From TrEMBL, chain A:
One of its GO terms (molecular function) is oxidoreductase activity, acting on the aldehyde or oxo group of donors. This is Indolepyruvate ferredoxin oxidoreductase beta subunit. The keyword Transmembrane applies. Residues 11-179 form the Pyruvate/ketoisovalerate oxidoreductase catalytic domain. It comes from Desulfacinum hydrothermale DSM 13146. The lineage of its organism: Bacteria, Pseudomonadati, Thermodesulfobacteriota, Syntrophobacteria, Syntrophobacterales. Keywords: Membrane, Oxidoreductase, Pyruvate, Transmembrane, Transmembrane helix.
UniProtKB/TrEMBL annotation, chain B:
Catalyzes the ferredoxin-dependent oxidative decarboxylation of arylpyruvates. This is Indolepyruvate oxidoreductase subunit IorA. One of its GO terms (biological process) is small molecule metabolic process. It comes from Desulfacinum hydrothermale DSM 13146. CDD domains: TPP_IOR_alpha, TPP_PYR_PFOR_IOR-alpha_like.
């Protein structure tokens, strides 16, 4: 297993979008991914969690007995105490999902008043950009520039470029702003 | 190199259906199954597939439609969540007897936990009950592949095949190579055979006999025998083997590898947990000292062992009898099984977490607040959808199953009236999609039994909870054809309701007046009866519907005393409580400017911001 990342937030904060970007970044690097996400009732304003597992590609096997392929023999969930990184889009996520983090894992948290090195006021930065909904990308940029992720800022930029869409530039700006906050802190 | 794509389990299953040459897919949305046909619907809208795809009115209709298409020799599928199969149980049980011609796969997604369901029922047990084979995929990619086998199996034995993924397969994402879709569907053909397709009880007995024979043969089918995932492993003296199926098998493989047990505990995956072959079961009983069975959520494989003296599982008390088998739970069970010490008790969550709530600005919240205001002593039978969350507002007292709000309201009505207590008003709330699904017969019944209560249809013109699938009010099929619109107000009148009104809950005063008028109708001794109020306002989260421009957030003026009334009785997530005597604030990142909270504050402390 290369990296296990838990992304925590509230429904509507864009937890799924962050995990999608991480998944695409892994794919672009020739890695494989297995992720789990929250749907249904809990998405309505409840605590939402995504599990992202990034691993080396297990061959290109696409024929034959699928169950025998080691790629199928991985749990889609991260066990408590096994996450290398916890991305908390809301500080409540630390209380709700902090137990997933391994003792030597990295916590990256969106906090109004940062208290530790992994903290950043992503919502404040997003508000300044006039794009409140992009706090998730600010946090992601911050995490990437802090060097705790399996992928680089450049990987993430390329994913956003490829995804395109009407929000592309705003998303990129948020990602860069998060990265700048990390480098400025260093 | 083939293109690789990350697919959600449900998307992977949609691909599987297309790769198998399935020609019809029918479904009623329900978490965790919704995106299977959702994915096909998106393909259909973009004109890229020939398959007939439909959001049916309910699961029973979906299954019957798919079944007849398979009678006509074409591969067909129905998809639903586990409780959806309860609705479709009638055709399903019977279809096992009639069998099929073209392959028929019924995908039923289970929700151990449960995360978004009323029960943790195990559809594999439903397969035993109906005597049909059931497949249990481990992961998204496994599900896609296994669907191809499912169709072959269905056609080879002319039997419907159940396909049972769990939430952890449906809502996992995994990268996999894309494969071409099969295009060579046969023409429809229907051979009349009344002894089979319209069997009377005498012939049903013969069909039952045939079904039993099919099942015996299927159990032995080499394509779906349990496989040992770690062929190098052999049980140590006195050690044991594990038999697992579905996502639990994936958890188990990972745990065995992590604990260094991959070489010493043979792990069998059973892609078809029912029927298990007698050879496999007796083989294990003869050779393995102990057998641990890991499965969700009921003891289906475990129960197929005739002698359970050395079988550990749910029946023996070694596996919890309820709840999801999370990987950490599997780790605990495997450690105990292997005689390893338990890991340091891993800390659970430090906080219970937030409970789900209606979105900021959701019109349901306004409707519920109005209901409580007009019927303060009411009994509020509720129903299944986003609006179940009216619970938080004290405006939902019962939630049972799809459509039950209206029939339960009728039951309450009879109970109170027959015991001489006419005073409790009863207000049922039901969403538009749920009303179409199962509310109509209940409404007719209430009318013909002479009930008098109010039904509020919370009409957001979509199926919001499951991802905004269209309703019959849309007037358009998935392939873009214009079809007749079926409107709730017309249906309500056709059900015999004489008092039907439509209003917008944002228009709070007018909507409250509609509720009052409905209340008067239920009380009118001369011409009164059932009343239906349709609360109509598009779901804010539905990108397909025209949304009014977002208005600025309201202001909190200095009359706010921090009493918390708006928080406890209205619970808009955009209103932030800072403790007694502190003024609440409005979170402008969440507020949609709906303005309903202005009517909520008893101190008139919330006021509209001036238009910019
Ligand atoms: S998704 Fe729509 S219907 Fe559901 S709570 Fe949100 S606004 Fe209301
Ligand atoms: S106007 Fe009031 S009720 Fe509407 S979203 Fe904003 S805070 Fe919530």
């Amino acid at each position: 297993m290369k990296q296990q990342i838990v992304i925590s937030g509230l429904g509507g904060q864009g937890v799924l979008f962050v995990s999608k970007i991480l998944g695409e970044a892994a794919l672009a690097r020739g890695l494989s991914v297995l992720m789990s996400e929250t749907h249904g009732m809990a998405q309505r304003g409840g605590n939402v969690i995504s599990h992202v597992k990034v691993m080396d590609r297990q061959g290109e096997k696409d024929q034959g007995d699928v169950a025998m392929d080691p790629a199928w023999q991985v749990s889609p969930l991260i066990r408590p105490g096994h996450a290398h990184v916890l991305l908390a889009l809301h500080e409540e996520g630390v209380r709700a999902h902090g137990h997933f983090l391994s003792p030597d894992g990295a916590l990256v948290c969106n906090r109004i008043s940062p208290t530790g090195p992994g903290d950043v006021d992503a919502t404040g930065i997003a508000r300044k950009l006039g794009n409140l909904l992009a706090a998730n990308l600010v946090l992601l940029g911050f995490a990437a520039a802090s060097g705790v992720l399996f992928c680089s800022m450049d990987d993430l930029r390329q994913v956003l470029m490829r995804l395109g869409g009407p929000r592309r530039d705003a998303n990129l700006a948020a990602l860069e702003a998060g990265s700048a906050a990390a480098i400025g802190d260093a | 190199m083939t293109e690789r794509k990350i697919l959600l389990g449900n998307e992977a299953m949609a691909h599987g259906l297309l790769e198998a040459g399935c020609t019809l897919a029918a479904s009623y949305p329900g978490t965790p199954a919704s995106e299977i046909v959702g994915t096909l619907a998106a393909f259909k809208r973009s004109g890229t597939i020939a398959m007939h795809v439909e959001w049916s009115i309910n699961e029973k209709v979906a299954l019957e439609t798919a079944l007849a298409s398979s009678y006509a020799g074409r591969r067909s599928a129905a998809a639903m969540k586990q409780v959806g199969l309860n609705v479709a149980a009638d055709p399903f049980m019977s279809a096992a007897y009639t069998g099929v011609t073209g392959g028929l796969v019924v995908i039923v997604a289970d929700d151990p936990g449960p995360h978004s369901s009323q029960t943790e029922q195990d559809t594999r047990q439903f397969a035993m009950f109906a005597k049909v084979p059931v497949l249990d995929p481990m992961s998204p990619a496994h599900a896609r592949d296994l669907l191809l086998t499912a169709f072959d199996l269905s056609e080879d034995y002319q039997i419907p095949v159940l396909f049972r993924p769990t939430t952890r397969v449906c809502h996992a994402r995994q990268d996999m190579p894309l494969r071409p879709f099969r295009q060579d569907a046969p023409l429809a053909q229907f051979e009349k055979d009344p002894a089979r397709w319209a069997a009377t009880p005498k012939f049903r007995f013969l069909l039952h006999k045939k079904l039993n024979e099919k099942l015996d043969a299927i159990g032995r089918d080499p394509r779906l025998q349990p496989v040992q995932l770690n062929p190098g492993a052999s049980a140590e003296k006195g050690g044991g083997v594990i038999v697992a199926s579905g996502a639990v098998c994936a958890h188990t493989a990972e745990v065995l590898k992590d604990l260094g047990l991959w070489q010493s505990i043979p792990l069998y995956d059973a892609p078809m947990p029912f029927p298990l072959s007698e050879d496999f079961l007796t083989g294990l009983l003869d050779n393995a000292p102990r057998i641990l069975v890991l499965e969700e959520t009921q003891p289906v494989m475990e129960a197929q062992f005739r002698d359970r003296a050395k079988v550990l599982g749910r029946l023996s008390g070694h596996v919890p009898r309820e709840g999801e088998l999370l990987p950490e739970t599997v780790e605990r069970i495997v450690r105990a099984f292997a005689g390893l010490p338990q890991a340091e008790a891993s800390q659970g969550a430090n906080a219970p977490g937030r409970r789900p709530t209606l979105c900021p600005g959701c019109a349901h919240r306004a409707a519920f607040f109005a209901i409580r205001k007009v019927f303060p002593r009411g009994i509020y039978p509720g129903d299944i959808g986003c609006y179940t969350l009216g619970l938080n507002l004290g405006a939902v007292d019962t939630v049972l199953c799809m459509g039950a709000s209206i029939s339960q309201a009728a039951g309450f009505y009879h109970a109170f009236r027959d015991s001489g207590q006419n005073s409790r008003p009863i207000v049922a709330t039901i969403g538009d999609s749920t009303f179409y699904h199962a509310g109509i017969p209940a409404l007719i019944n209430a009318v013909i039994q002479g009930c008098r209560f109010v039904v509020v249809v919370l009409d957001n013109t979509t199926t919001a909870m499951t991802g905004h699938q269209p309703t019959p009010a849309e007037g358009r099929s998935l392939d873009g054809r214009t079809v007749p619109r079926v409107r709730i107000e017309d249906l309500a009148r056709a059900c015999g309701v004489r008092h039907v009104s439509v209003g917008d809950p944002y228009d709070f005063q007018a909507f409250t007046d509609l509720l009052k008028a409905a209340r008067e109708h239920t009380r009118d001794p001369e011409n009164g009866g059932m009343a239906v109020v349709i609360a109509r306002r598009p779901c804010l989260m539905d990108r397909k519907q025209a949304q009014p421009a977002r208005r600025p957030a309201p202001r909190i003026n200095d009359k706010c005393q921090g009493c918390g009334f708006c928080i406890t009785h209205f619970e808009c997530p955009a209103l932030v409580f800072h403790g007694k005597e502190e003024a609440v604030t409005v979170d402008d990142a969440l507020c949609t400017g709906c303005g309903v909270c202005i009517h909520v504050c008893p101190h008139s402390a919330i006021e509209m911001a001036p238009q910019p």
